[in-house]
Amino acid sequence: MSVNEGGEIPGYILAQFGMAVGHKNVLSKKADLQLYSYDSAIDRALPSAVLFPENTEQVSALVKICHKHKIPFVARGAGTNLCGGTIPLHQSVVIAPTRMKRILSVNPQKRVAVVEPGLPNLFLKKALEPYGLYYAPDPASQKACTIGGNIGTNAGGPHCLKYGVTSHHILGLELVLPDGAVIHLDTGQDGSDMVGLMVGSEGTLGIVTQATLNLLPLPEKVETMLAAFPSLDAAMQTVTEVITAGIIPATLEAMDKITVQAVESFVHAGYPTNAEAVLLIEVDGSSDLKDDVHKIRTICEKNRSQEFRLAVNEKEREKLWEGRRGSYPAMARLAPNVLVEDGAVPRNRLPEASRRIRAIARGKKLNLSLIFHAGDGNLHPQILFDERNKEETALVKSAGYEMLKVCVDMGGTISGEHGIGIDKREAMRWLFTPETLRLFRKIKRVFDPENLCNPDKLIPLPEENEEQSSPKEQPDSPIQFLNRLLAPANEAELSATLRFLNQSRKTIFIEGRKTGLSNPPSSDVSISTQYLNRIVEHDRENFTIIVEAGIGLDTLKKELSQSGQKVHVPSERNGSLGGLIAMNWPQTPPLRDQILGMRVALANGEIVQFGAKVMKNVAGYDAAKLLLGSKGALGVILSVILKTYPIGYGACSPSFRRKPESREEFPQLDSGFRRQEETKSHSRPLGNDGVLQQILLQKIKEAFDPNNSFVTPTENS
Q: Rg of the chain over CA atoms, in angstroms?
């Protein structure tokens, strides 16, 4: 690459950057670069330059220069991320779209906004209030964090319990790919869901330059409650019982005694400092909420709550929330540094996880506090330390890893919302098999074959020989190969069948119940998933179900209804779950918002898995989204982890809608906000989106299925 040994960019390349964005928007002095060498985690690395584009074309021009000269680059917003995700490894250039912070348009009727990535989350919230609308994701750092950063780490926040995380509210993206090409993606396009893949990819696949957001109407009624408990276990039991009772609060947050005392001395929010744990509970809706409040109060009293307080007005409500949002800065007053870990476990295992995490801190004599997005099973251990003490810093980092391992051992994940970056990169090996990690690396190479776009983040670097799959002897045909239709009885038989067919160079068509399939494609053999139809596990308490992909939708709905739960699937369809996913039929709410994880058999018989049995998970690429709309081109869906809902509970996730084809559908904002100018810099599209999408989809197909074994139907089935 064209970077000197000292990490300096040659003058002629700096000049090219200056020509692209203006010389005033290029920083190269060491003192300036040091300001962009860190985020809110521990690691540091000095960039070779910092660049400030002001529109999509400038981002594209900068990336093209980097691509030409093989210079790695990192997109960086406000630097609030807590995983080292924007640390500029390998003397990367920092591309900072923080000046791209306009709200380009709002359509109150369709409840959609188009914004630039540098827009702070809170600014958007304030701008939408006059329309009676809001953008649901609300990270604790919302005063500073940007929409682009939210997209990079699939940010959550307190309100995602009811309304979902960032990926549930992104309808479309404008993206600069690692070679500088510009592409527009939306959730209504045919083929694999690439929007879902991009959200949570931590800027390793491209740079977001615009986002189309789903908006929600402000709730007509809101009730905010504080409940104090004599033990953390009592508080966590209350969380479980509230959800099990069929109440889905807008928020359900928890803080331990150390956090409460720190917050109270800092914010003076009126928290009871003698309580061992405090819950902050909020319900909202369009109808009277007294019944929900009464049920919640009854559950709190049953679990020996010491105090139950209902905010009587907006001022009291905001003060309670000011305390919760101030928990991190409150802890930061007590020590030079705070390591904030971010694990998630099934909700009912929070008490056990908390005990084990506290035991780790006691064993290492570390100062620890705990805060929780308790309704989601997402917990944040906060460890106080001084990074100038290298021994203490190493101890804290090792303790953080042990705490994350606890979450994994309990069926959870290593990040619910903060991301992986470099801080948790090696811990990905606890969650994913070598086969899955290999596939992640292939997906990265689809978009970034030169490894220039935020290099060496998110996915652990391959160990020796890890990129090579283990050679296996050619199996005998596990199913008598007498006709075109094979129906394996279980996962192992299916895997062996695929391996045999792959080595025999057979073409394969995957079918479920064949409902509506009138024109199956020509293939050497068809594989039916009709016998992969078991309910693997129904966790009623945590509202999740794991089912094999061949299960009929009618069977799934019947099983869930017997326990007072449901999933949102079309009532008029009776095909298989796998078929529904492969075809990605339009529905409200989208199926994509209900899938927590998936197991998939690749054409060579390898089995990969994505996601986990937790409500929030940003570990690895959300490759399960690529199976949505894939029509069986990528692999055989084996089983799916679904989020379930109480019967009678309405859908809270965004309605399915296509991204509007024309910007004219969006009225410009009133004066007071910077308007989009009708200039060359905002014309679109910059390239043939359809061609680019087809190229990317074909490369994704090659990553999953190099021999092109799987064939797809020629019409909807």
A: 25
The helices-and-strands tally (H runs, E runs) of the chain is 21, 30
Identify the bridge partners of residue 637 per DSSP, sorted by sequence position. 600
What H or E segment, with its residue span, contains residue 114?
strand 112-115
Q: What is the per-residue pLDDT across 452-469, written as a single tens digit (0 to 9) for each?
A: 999 999 999 998 777 776
**Measured CA distances, 566 to 537, 545, 549, 557, 586 (Å):** 15, 10, 17, 6, 18
Closest-CA residue to 571 (of 581, 556, 583) = 556
pLDDT for position 485 = 83
Contacts for 257 with CB less than 8 Å, ≥ 6 apart: 273, 275, 276, 277
Contact 62, 20 (CB under 8 A): yes
Is 102's pLDDT higher than 90? yes
Identify whether the C-beta of residue 469 lies closer than 8 Å to the C-beta of residue 435: yes
CB 160 within 8 A of CB 140: no
Residue 679 confidence (pLDDT): 32
Cα–Cα dist 176/419, whole Å:
21
pLDDT in tens, 199-231: 999 999 999 999 999 999 999 999 999 999 999
Give the pairing of strands 565-566 and 535-539. Answer: unpaired
pLDDT, tens digit, 9 for 90 and up, residues 509-566? 998 776 555 567 889 999 999 999 999 999 999 999 999 999 999 999 999 999 999 9
CA atoms within 13 A on the CB side of 54: 13
Q: Give CA 274 to chain center in angstroms.
A: 36
pLDDT computed for residue 8 by the predictor:
84
Spatial contact of 414 and 408, defined as CB atoms under 8 Å apart: yes
Confidence check: pLDDT of 614 > 60: yes
Which uninterrupted H or E stretch holds 260? helix 257-267
Quickly state the pLDDT bin for 684 (edges 50, 70, 90). Answer: very low
Distance CA(278)–CA(236), nearest Å, equals 10
**Type of residue found at 525:** V
Residue 42's contacts (CB-CB under 8 Å, 6 or more residues apart) are 84, 337, 339, 387, 393, 397, 423
- Distance (Å, rounded) from C-alpha 286 to C-alpha 218? 9
Rounded to whole angstroms, how far apart are CA atoms 338 and 386?
8
Q: Which residues contact 19 (CB under 8 A, 6 or more apart)?
A: none
Q: Are 717 and 578 in contact (CB under 8 A)?
A: no
Provide DSSP, 331-344: HHTSSSEEEE--EE
| Chain center to CA of 418 | 9
Nearest to 160 by CA among 263, 248, 287: 248
Across 547-582, b (16+ Cβ under 10 Å) vs e yields: bbbbbbbebbbeebeeeebbbbbeeebebbbbbbbb
Identify the pLDDT of residue 136: 95
Bigger pLDDT: 530 or 716? Answer: 530
Question: Does the reported pTM lie above 0.90?
Answer: yes
User: Which residues, other chains included, contact 170 with Cβ-Cβ below 8 Å and sequence gap of 6+?
Assistant: 151, 187, 195, 199, 211, 212, 213, 214
Q: Any idea of the CA torsion for 683, 689, 691, 693, to the nearest 10 degrees?
A: 160
